[in-house]
Amino acid sequence: MGTVKRASSRGQKVSALTLLCAMAILTAPGLAVGTAYAAPSAPSAPSAPSAPAAPAAPTPEPGAKSLEQVRKEIEDLYRQAGTATDAYNLAQSETKAQSERIVQIANLVVAGQDRISGLKDRAGAAARAQYRSGGLPPGARLALSDSPADYLDGTGRLRQGEKATTDLLSELNRTQTDLERYAKEAGALWQKMEDNRVKKEAAKKEIEEKIKTAEALENKLAAEEKARLLQLEQEAQYKAQTAWLSTGAMKDVNGAATDAGKRAVQFATAQIGKPYVWGAEGPASFDCSGLTSQAWLAAGRGIPRTSQEQLRLLPKVPVKDMRPGDLIIYFDDASHVGMYVGDGAMVHAPRPGRTVTMAGAGSMPIKAVVRPDA
């Protein structure tokens, strides 16, 4: 299940093991394997389970929320946490870049200070040489000179020395200007780092609050209700996937993965079963963009850390041109991302409380498809 192989022909599929894994995740209990990725004749709700289904939830009290309402509320809370996670990750990424730039500036400042010291030494040497010559005006030096030729030669050297002094002072001024610019840039970066720290703290607080609220809702459910809740999630994903496939979205999708795309898919699918943890980039856990960015890093390509930056900075491709390794950005706010692995499937880190898994590429609203190795 670690590698998804593609050929230019649509005839070759993902391995049977990968497909079976995807089916198990996408379909509710009792659904026939193979319906999740094949284009359905018409969108339909999952068929009645042939195996014993999870126990039905107790009849709710009058005025109480249904289990489906609870599912949607939990899903919305985790989506909000996902948006805040993206903001946290972006602030974290920017802070790292700013810290690295501050280190570079510090090295430039040290080099500039050393250069100024050397220039001052040269200026001092020139001043001492002029002092030793007595500082006589040119006419006096000509009158006192025993040899006019020596005088003219000395005058030439003097002019060269004057030019060298002028150049030295100009260089000194430029270096001092550079140091002032470095100081201003460092000050601005420090301010940005402080702003990012505040953003991270606010995002972290929001993430923790949303997850805590969602977990509290889920923890109120009885064991059989939790089982039914998971089944409802799977049914909602299946319904969305079949509706998406029924539009013909996958009709012309037959792109073959590049070598880098194969490596990225291999890395991502090898993480299946590892838990979602917000802000995590592996190796033991991942959030959604942590998984995709690390998968492409393993394939030899550095890409932006967050789903929103992946959308903003990576080249977009039409769904019909999608190929394994491409990233699918979900929801209007680009708060989630998965990696297309072929045959209508993608791998992703869904949300807190879930693990890295396979799902239908159309099981959530697609905003765009982007290509790291365009």
Beta strand %: 5-15%
Number of helices in the DSSP assignment = 8
The geometry reads as elongated
What kind of sheet is the major sheet?
A: 6 strands, antiparallel
In terms of structural class, how would the helical and strand content be classed? alpha+beta
Count of extended strands: 6
Q: Helical content, roughly?
A: 55-70%
Instruction: Give the radius of gyration.
Output: 33 Å
Question: What's the overall average pLDDT, rounded?
Answer: 78
Strand order of the largest sheet: 1-6-2-3-4-5
Contiguous runs where pLDDT drops below 50 for at least 5 residues: 1-55
Order of helices and strands: HHHHHHHHEEEEEE
End-to-end span in angstroms?
Answer: 25 Å
Characteristics:
alpha+beta, 374 residues, 6-stranded antiparallel beta sheet, 7% strand, 56% helix, single chain, disordered N terminus, 8 helices
Short description:
This protein has 374 residues and is an alpha+beta fold. 56% of the residues lie in helices and 7% in strands. It is built from eight helices and six strands; from the N terminus they run ααααααααββββββ.
Description:
This protein has helices at 16-26, 67-132, 138-144, 148-219, 223-246, 259-270, 288-298, 307-313, and strands at residues 316-317, 327-330, 336-342, 345-348, 357-360, 366-370. With 374 residues, it is α+β, with helices and mostly antiparallel strands. Strands 1-6-2-3-4-5 form a 6-stranded antiparallel beta sheet. β2 and β3 (336-342) form a beta hairpin. The chain is elongated. The two termini are 25 Å apart.
